[in-house]
Amino acid sequence: MKKVLFLALAAASFSFTACDSKKEDATEQAADNVENAGEAKADAMEEKADAVRDSADATADKMEDAADATDAPATTTAPATTPAQ
Questions:
Q1: In whole angstroms, what is the distance from residue 40 CA to residue 69 CA?
Q2: Does 24 map to a domain?
Q3: What's the first-to-final CA gap in the chain, in angstroms?
Q4: pLDDT 10s per residue in the chain (85 long)?
Q5: Into how many domains does the chain fold?
Q6: Cβ partners under 8 Å of residue 20, min gap 6
Q7: Which regions are flagged for Low complexity bias (predicted)?
Q8: Domain assignment of residue 72, yes or no
């Protein structure tokens, strides 16, 4: 009889430990909220970094194009003439 009572008590204690308390649920929810907020902030920072990179690339491309335009040889030479015969 003592074994049956002990096993019943052990089974009951295991069933209580498997259940989450309201306090534990609230703490887990708060942790999830912090994690989600951190992920959202990291995503926003990544998007901002991408925008800065894109802007820098566009500015560099414009500067390179301007430099290429100043290096181009002038094509304002007189046309070749053929001597009259």
A1: 44
A2: yes
A3: 135
A4: 677 766 777 777 766 665 678 898 999 999 999 999 999 999 999 999 999 999 999 999 999 999 988 876 656 666 666 666 6
A5: 1
A6: 28
A7: 69-85
A8: no
Element (H, E) at 69: helix 22-71
Query: Which tokens belong to 66?
Result: 């301007």
Whether residue 37 is contained in a domain is answered as yes
d(CA 37, CA 24): 20
Residue 65 domain flag: no
Look up the domain containing 37 and give its range: 20-54
**Tokens at 73, concatenated:** 């040889």
